[in-house]
Structures are given as structure tokens and as C-alpha cells.
Amino acid sequence: MAITRDKKQTLVADMTGLMSEAKMTVFAAYQGLSVAEMQELRRSAREAGVIIRVVKNRLVKVAMSGIDIYKDLDVSALSGQLLYAVSTEDEVAPAQVLDKFAKTHPALVLKGGFSAEGVVLSEDEIKSLAGLPSKNQLIAEVVAQLLSPVHDVTNALSGNLHALLDGVSAKATN
Hints:
Layout: H1 5-21, E1 24-29, H2 35-47, E2 51-53, H3 57-65, E3 82-87, H4 93-104, E4 109-115, E5 120-121, H5 123-130, H6 135-173
């Protein structure tokens, strides 16, 4: 059954809004995935703050032509049955979600992506991004590095304090 013009305009408006706010958009071929597997993918994506959309490539191209950053990009890679994973919060989350899912479901094949800066990313670049730690993991590592000297000082002082207390208690018992 054909999609009505109003429905198409709604889909284009939705994709335009989503992609204009996106920090990263990754697209992948999903031919061969069952409905249950798609639901599993959507569930894991939702947990990671990633939005999955299955939209006709022609409508995505129309949406991209309405966004200044994406207007002049080469969109020749947008062919076949594709799904789009978009994140407005984390740059690597869409790549990580799709790459993790693709490892257990070979029917999902990463094809490429678009960065928030308007750069077209290849499949290899997307896989490289998927190997990076998430934004929250990087923040946690920086905080741990910043707190490391504080922990070292408190451990050194508490060690000397324990030795002093042990010495005082040993003198008191004699």
C-alpha cells in the first residue's frame, strides 16, 4: 500500500528534525532480520539513547537536502533497505549499538554514517568509532585520573597514621 503525501511529509519533517539535532547518524542494511530481531535492536538502541528509524532512502535524501550541513553531501551510499540509527547525545553510541548487534546478527551490515559536522563516514570509520569508549566512560576515566593524586595522598597519610597509632598502642601496653 502506498504512503500518502501527508505521511511522507510527516516522515521527512521527522527525519529533518532528527538529523539536524543528531551528533551522529549511522545507516545499515537490515535485509534478512526478523521482526523479533528488529524489536531486540530497537530495545537495545533505546537503552543506549539511540533512535532507530526505517525510512525510504528517497525521503531521507529529501530530509538531508533541507539541512544546510548535509545539503551538498554525496548520498550515493544510500541504496537498498537501510535503517538509520541516530543519537542526539553521544557521537559513538549509534555505531556501538549497531556494531554490537551486527556481531550476533550477521544479517545487519553497517554501511556508513554522517557526522554532525557534515562528514560522510565509511563502513570502516564507523567500525573504528564503535571501538571507542562511550562519552560517559571517557568522563569517568578523566575524573578517575583527576582524583588519583588525592587518593594517593590520603592513602599515604592514613598509612602513616596507622603506624603512629600502632606505635602508641604498643607503648601504652608496655
